[in-house]
Write a structure and sequence with these properties.
Shape: globular
Largest sheet: 7 strands, mixed
Strand content: 5-15%
Structural class: alpha+beta
Length: 755
């Protein structure tokens, strides 16, 4: 009977059909906490026992030293204007080993932890993406990482030391005009042939685009489909996707032209090869690496997506928090700080809480990779959702900055990040396809306790394995249905919690949501089956439900790892409640759009039950207020929440003036409160309290030192909110007859008050 059922399922394509490239992707990496969620019964005790690392002293010292110094060297406006990284900055990056974080020490590298690399990239990229890419690319997927893991000893010796010092500037050529997210469809061709000198070589023809560092790289890794019609390599005619090293100056190889990315300019352009001939030894891994390129890419991306793009995005979110909270207290309207107005406060509270959650997920995920995990599904979640959320938070920050956010110039603090945000959303797997295809499509097959085993049994015609795993799957589905009913009726109480106190309810509700998610996953696989691949709107909602569970766990894990700080509770409450509301939205979307006979039930009776007893709702206004306070007051909490964000002290920089004003205003607040009280008692006239400081001192209501502090804080406030002003010549540019060039005069801040 089971053999007949197996053959029927195979003939009717009931189960997902897995291609060779999809199988390599499914087999790459490992299953992490995503497997717990797909099980429907997550073990939160085990999850809380997973590593949540701290940076080693050596790496923290590097961040506080050379990385901080690099940020101080960067003139963001000038780099944006010229689209060039100054030579002294490039030399500093190379001299301090910032291109060598992945490389083992025996080859001259720093060999930093994944968490350390992520933290460094977060700090640099959030401050300036142009310089950031020059550090990111050598320390992400490319020559160093591939040679480190798959290269021969000779390749490691030849290349890694020069990559570590920056003598080799690498880039990785994968994307083509017709191959983006569908990287397996690349058309770059490598033909193996015997040259006239008797040596076996490869002739490459390719046209790559969107390649970061391509214009300035001198060592390019080209992903191509390798063909060997004479079987010279002994691997058949179609060898498969292969990674080949091409050096600058190789005949037929062209690079140096630029694309012009939106936002912060960074070196990006095409790579073109016309009959480029290289020796077979240029294959990464030489003969063993021929045809293994796709496997290499999938294995490294399995954990690699956790690092560079999430780092830049989450560093950006923290940077938004580091200036938006202060700006909301420095900027005044109607005689009060705008951060005390509920509409503004709502944005600030969201920024504070979600940046807290994202940082927790980043550290937790990187700690997993450092522990040997390579979780492709969680990595894809981190890439897609951190970049999307970072973009959302910088837009919220722009709303708070208002006019100061949209006036361009060196004093615009958030504008560059706002303009650059779409880049991270788009690259290394566009978020649309990552959400609709990768996260649930790969996760449902790979992370499910039985699905892949059943698929493998069908493909291998193994009736015994098919029977055992199908029965196991059916039992798993039945148990989860009973479990789902119990957790629905008790709002998760039957799930229990590994902790007591104010966060216990969140573990119960996440367990409840995981059970519902597992049941809905099985229903989709049973009833929609192989057609799930084309139901992107539906699978995207499944991805949302899974992703927000992972992000909520990140916030809870951070809270536990950092000692259950009471002052952080509003951030935990806000972020997890926000995540639960998103999970509820995802479930409602699934119920409304499931389709078929089952969909008719889910969209009516099911929807009614779902809404009568929701898993979560958005945070209330009081919680938004408490969350905002975390980044509206200088002190230990503010410093901790914005740790490893570059916060300039140089008052010639807008952020430096803002943070100075933030500190002074906070210090002056008690004195201003005295002036307010005197105004209420009619001892002082109405008006701006700071302008009454001297009168208050004259009446003995405050001391002379207090009056001086108030005046100093007021002057700092006015300086901090100024924006750039250009003369017509500066704005339009004028031609200098002597140099026959455009003069871009220095932009001077016109201060509203005297210092």
């Amino acid at each position: 009977m089971f053999a007949m059922l197996m053959n029927w399922m195979k003939a009717n394509k009931i189960l997902p059909q897995i291609s060779d490239t999809e199988r390599q992707a499914l087999e790459a990496g490992s299953i992490w906490i995503d497997g717990e969620l797909f099980s429907g019964h997550p073990d939160f005790t085990r999850i809380l026992a997973e590593n949540y690392n701290k940076l080693p002293p050596e790496e923290q010292a590097f961040i506080d030293g050379p990385v901080e110094e690099l940020c101080r060297m960067i003139d963001r406006f000038e780099i944006g204007r010229t689209k060039r990284i100054p030579d002294d900055i490039l030399a500093f990056v190379k001299r301090t080993g910032m291109m060598s974080f992945l490389i083992p020490k025996q080859y001259g590298g720093k060999q930093f932890s994944i968490l350390g690399i992520s933290t460094i990239l977060a700090k640099i990229s959030a401050y300036n993406a142009t310089v950031g890419t020059f550090v990111v690319i050598p320390n992400s997927l490319g020559a160093a990482e591939l040679i480190k893991h798959y290269g021969t000893d000779a390749q490691k010796t030849a290349y890694l030391p020069k990559l570590a010092t920056g003598e080799y500037v690498p880039c990785f050529g994968l994307t083509e005009p017709t191959a983006g997210s569908d990287a397996a469809s690349i058309k770059a061709d490598g033909l193996v042939f015997k040259d006239v000198d008797g040596e076996t070589k490869i002739k490459l023809n390719f046209r790559k685009r969107y390649i970061t560092l391509a214009p300035i790289a001198n060592l390019c890794t080209i992903a191509c489909k390798l063909h060997d019609p004479q079987n010279l390599l002994g691997k058949g005619e179609d060898v498969g996707i292969t990674c080949v090293l091409v050096h600058e100056g190789t005949p037929g190889f062209t690079h140096g032209d630029h694309h012009d990315p939106i936002g912060d300019p960074f070196y990006n352009g095409p790579l073109i090869g016309k009959d480029v001939v290289v020796p077979v030894k240029n294959i990464i891994g030489e003969l063993d690496g021929a045809g293994q390129g796709w496997r290499m890419l999938m294995e490294q991306l399995a954990g690699g997506r956790m690092v560079s793009l999430p780092a830049g995005a989450i560093g950006g979110a923290k940077a938004v928090a580091a200036v938006t909270g202060p700006y909301s207290m420095v900027r005044q309207q109607f005689g009060i700080a705008i951060g005390r107005m509920e509409g503004v406060e709502d944005k600030v509270g969201k920024i504070a809480a979600l940046s807290y959650m994202l940082e927790g997920a980043r550290v937790f995920g990187c700690s997993a990779v450092d522990s040997g995990q390579q979780p492709p599904v969680v990595s894809a979640i981190m890439k897609a959702y951190s970049t999307a959320l970072s973009q959302e938070l910088v837009i919220d920050g722009m709303d708070v900055f208002s006019g100061a956010g949209v006036m361009q110039g060196p004093n615009n603090i958030l504008g560059a990040g706002y303009k650059s945000a779409p880049v991270a959303v788009t690259v290394e797997g566009a978020n649309i396809l990552t959400r609709t295809l990768m996260i649930f499509g790969q996760g449902a097959t790979r992370c499910h306790p039985y699905a892949l085993k059943v698929v493998n049994a069908v493909e291998q015609d193994d009736a015994s394995a098919f029977r055992n795993n199908l029965l196991g799957w059916i039992g798993h589905f039945i148990v989860n249905n009973f479990r789902a009913v119990g957790r629905y009726l008790t709002r998760g109480l039957t799930a229990g919690s590994p902790v007591s106190g104010p966060t216990a309810t969140y573990y119960r509700r996440l367990a409840w949501s995981a059970t519902r998610f597992a049941v809905l996953t099985d229903l989709a696989m049973f009833t929609i089956g192989g057609k799930l691949k084309v139901r992107g709107k539906l699978t995207g909602r499944y991805a949302d439900a899974l992703a927000w569970q992972v992000l909520a766990i990140g916030a809870l894990r951070r809270y536990e790892a950092e000692g259950r700080r009471e002052e952080d509770l509003p951030l935990v409450h806000y972020s997890v409640q926000f995540a639960l509301a998103k999970i509820q939205d995802a479930f409602e979307g699934i119920y409304a759009n499931f389709g078929g006979a089952l969909g008719a039930y889910l969209s009516t009776v099911g929807m009614l039950l779902l809404r009568l007893n929701p898993i979560g709702a958005l945070p209330n206004d009081a919680l938004s207020h408490q969350s905002a306070l975390a980044i509206q007051r200088p002190g230990e909490q503010f410093d901790r929440l914005t740790q490893d964000v570059f916060k300039p002290v140089d008052e010639s920089l807008a952020a430096g003036r803002l943070l100075k004003a933030f500190a002074l205003i906070s210090k002056a607040e008690p004195v201003i409160a005295k002036i307010h009280a005197a105004q209420k008692d009619k001892a002082l006239p109405r008006g701006i309290p700071e302008e009454q400081a001297q009168a208050a001192a004259n009446q003995g209501l405050i001391t002379a030192d207090e009056a001086a502090l108030v005046r100093k804080a007021y002057a700092a406030r006015l300086e901090a909110i100024e924006v750039d002003v250009f003369t017509p010549e500066q704005y339009f540019g004028v031609i200098d007859s002597q140099t026959d060039g455009v003069v871009h005069g220095a932009v001077e801040l016109k201060r509203a008050v005297n210092a």
